[in-house]
Automatic annotation (TrEMBL):
All copies of domain ENPP1-3/EXOG-like endonuclease/phosphodiesterase, residue ranges: 442-671
Record domain DNA/RNA non-specific endonuclease/pyrophosphatase/phosphodiesterase: where: 441-671
Pfam family, one: Endonuclease_NS
The entry's keywords: Endonuclease, Hydrolase, Nuclease
Protein name from the UniProt record: DNA/RNA endonuclease
Highest taxon of source: Bacteria
UniProt GO molecular function: endonuclease activity
Length: 699
């Protein structure tokens, strides 16, 4: 795919003077004069007047009717459901973006998001990924795409669109007709320079957001529109609307600019964006109709017909009203919740919100997990822009994974699985090397997945203290920086074997997407290796449901590797390398369930290193079950509690083996330092409550 960066920036440069003129006219209260085409300006104003202007003594007389009717909110609430979050997991790349339904079961996003049929087949679209009126995540619905029915592409250097037929539903309960669509049209009365535009999007993979401020349409070319508003990586493919919720552009590019000054002449940073004009896309699709087969031609013709101008004064909506399927109510009745929406009278929206979700396990006597309120506020963004789709390279051929001989003189192979775990081991897809062995190799670590539990059996990681680097979690670059998680599916293993974003979105009031192999653990070597390793830790295969307090409260768990590295290895001057094994511990007697997913009450960690007198190892178990009664009610740092009950125990490695069904081998068992601590071995299951980092190392 050609790089279209230069071309877009040339267009930005060419419209610089026009943009400045539009801003001056709007600032002077002459918004109508910002549109140079008198015919377009008149057509646009006439259409607005027909739709929203009252008649009589209180008719609008201001500049282009600045006030909006309350139907702006209700129509926006309807149309936002047609916007979806796009995840592309192709053989060599992963991309996230936005997109929207255009009618007749067709979905549109950018070509730089879905670049070919292979990418389309590896794509899932998640709808209703958003926060509801009470601050809680809505139930999502996921669809696959079906490029065999219809796939139309226009490369990024042209119109940068991908129109694909919606495929089967893989998760959730919403039907396509419930989600509605955004009608395409080449009508010339949908926009004028100087108007405000609105974008519904999934920036950085966050829950759905609407950009409604600082949103001036400032320039136009034959095929693009330029506007100033807030977008970010992941916004590629979002619909750009006017205030009547007509879609006028397909967003595909954004970057910072410093073209605005304050009263003192100091530059104010802003975002200049480009979208492909819907009228240009409409005409291009119309020209391709005759070249399609019967089924594809019918689908596209239906979608284009939906966008034809409506008769004046009808006020026809562009979304079909919600129509919940019968089986949706039946499914909700199984968990004691009401359907998310019920049939409404024309022109109204009625939403019934589930206030409690009860999960029963065993004989129904276990505690219930309830869904509280959560408000998601994203962190501050940096001024870094480009084509707004998150990308990563998914060529796994050069991932070598965990190295059993990493610590010189000691062979520490991956742990062996007992008979039960062997039956639950998730194999890799056909065609992958050693598929039955199930080892997912990443940079400096490996993972094996339990296909029944849908999370890792264990991860195994090599850490080199001499070249240990910190990697920016947001940008992927080697440096110290803040958070900003985007997680990926691994195409080498079936998605049905791994918990994905739909689960973590639904249960975010209780659980974070918790790393097993910590993102900083494998980030050593040169900068390129460290950055690739950091990205690799953000695979859902390395993710587990960890209570949101876990990362805050379990400091010995989080810091064990670094403490052992700094105090047990570097201080001893022995090789400066450690190996770490970790994973969940399941116990059918005490574990709660979230839907069909069993939540591990505990996690284990084993750290091995070369000490002054030979191989050393330490086992750690951390318990999160006492946290599960606390629900997240707001974003940010949780309230400080007098005592956060996260019991962390240094335990005999034999005990970890019994609780997990794993065999770590004689070398690690014999090196267990708990035997040197002078602690009594009660039935071979000694455990020491960790109250200080020093408890992790032998006296």
């Amino acid at each position: 795919m050609a790089d279209f960066t230069t071309e877009v920036r040339e267009r930005f440069k060419a419209t610089s003077k026009d943009r400045a003129a539009v801003r001056r006219l709007v600032a002077a209260g002459r918004r109508v004069d910002a549109e140079p085409s008198i015919d377009r300006s008149r057509a646009f104003v006439r259409r607005r007047m027909r739709r929203v202007a009252p008649r009589g003594p209180e008719a609008f007389t201001g500049d282009m009717m600045e006030a909006l009717g309350t139907n702006f909110l209700s129509e926006g609430a309807q149309i936002r459901r047609a916007v979806g979050y796009v995840e592309v997991n192709a053989p060599r790349r992963s991309v996230t973006g936005s997109g929207f339904l255009i009618g007749a079961g067709l979905f549109i996003t950018n070509c730089h998001v879905i670049e070919d049929a292979a990418a389309a087949r590896g794509t899932q679209v998640i709808f209703d990924k958003e926060i509801d009126e009470l601050g809680r995540p809505r139930a999502t619905t996921t669809f696959l795409l079906d490029p065999d029915r219809l796939l139309l592409l226009s490369p990024p250097e042209e119109l940068d669109y991908a129109v694909v037929a919606l495929g089967q539903r893989s998760n959730g309960m919403a039907m396509p007709e419930e989600l509605g669509f955004c009608a395409l049209s080449d009508s010339p009365d949908r926009h004028a320079l100087g108007i405000n535009v609105n974008i519904i999007q999934h920036p950085r993979g966050w829950s759905k957001m609407a950009a409604l401020r600082k949103n001036l349409l400032v320039a136009r070319t034959d095929t693009t529109l330029h506007y100033e508003t807030d977008t970010d990586q992941g916004s590629s493919g979002a619909p750009v609307f006017n205030d009547d919720w007509d879609v006028i552009a397909l967003h595909h590019w954004g970057e910072p600019f410093l073209a605005i000054e304050d009263d003192n002449g100091h530059p104010i940073g802003g975002n200049l964006n480009e979208g492909v004009r819907i009228s240009a896309i409409y005409r291009d699709l119309e020209a391709r109709l005759t070249k399609l087969d019967a089924e594809g031609g019918k689908l596209l013709a239906q979608a284009l017909d939906k966008g034809k101008p409506q008769t004046a004064l009808t006020g026809a909506r562009r979304l079909t009203p919600p129509r919940p399927a019968v089986h949706r109510e039946e499914a909700h009745s199984l968990i004691g919740a009401k359907p998310m929406s019920t049939p409404s009278e024309p022109g109204t929206i009625r939403i019934t919100l589930p206030l409690e979700i009860t999960i029963r396990i065993g004989d129904g006597m276990a505690p219930a997990l309830q869904a509280p309120a959560v408000v998601v506020t994203p962190p501050a963004r940096s001024l870094t822009r480009a084509a707004e789709a998150l990308r990563r390279d998914n060529d796994y051929a050069n991932r070598e994974g965990y190295d059993a001989d990493f610590i010189a003189g000691h062979a520490l192979p991956l742990p062996k699985l007992n008979a039960r775990l062997k039956k639950q081991l998730a194999p890799l897809r056909d065609g992958e090397p050693d598929a039955k062995d199930g080892e997912l190799k990443y940079v400096h670590f490996s993972v094996k997945v339990n296909k029944i539990r849908q999370m890792a059996i264990f991860t195994a990681t090599n850490i080199d203290g001499e070249t240990y680097l910190a990697v920016n979690r947001k940008t992927g670059a080697v440096e110290d920086a803040a958070e900003g998680d985007t997680w990926f599916n691994d195409p080498r293993v079936s998605g049905s074997f791994v918990l994905g974003q739909p689960f973590y979105g639904e249960w975010s009031h209780l659980f974070d997407r918790g790393h097993l192999t910590r993102r900083s653990d494998p980030t050593w070597g040169d900068a390129e290796d460290a950055e690739r390793a950091n990205a690799d830790t953000f695979h859902f295969t390395n993710c587990s449901p960890q209570h949101f307090r876990f990362n805050q409260a379990a400091r010995f768990w989080q810091g064990a590797e670094r403490y052992v590295l700094e105090n047990g290895v570097l201080a001893a001057g022995q090789g400066k390398r450690i190996s770490v094994f970790q994973g969940p511990i399941f116990d059918d007697r005490i574990d709660l369930s979230a839907g069909e997913v069993q939540i591990p009450s505990c996690f284990f960690k084993i750290v091995a290193w070369e000490g002054a007198d030979g191989l050393k190892s330490v086992g750690l178990v951390v318990d999160q079950k006492n946290l599960l009664a606390e629900e997240r009610r707001f974003i940010g740092t949780p309230n400080d509690l007098p005592s956060v009950d996260v019991a962390q125990w240094r335990v005999n490695i034999d005990t970890i083996e019994k609780r997990t069904g794993l065999d770590f081998g004689d070398a690690i068992r014999d090196a267990d330092t708990i035997r040197t601590n002078g602690q009594p071995l009660v039935g071979g299951e000694a455990q020491i409550l960790v109250r200080d980092f020093a408890d992790l190392l032998p006296v």
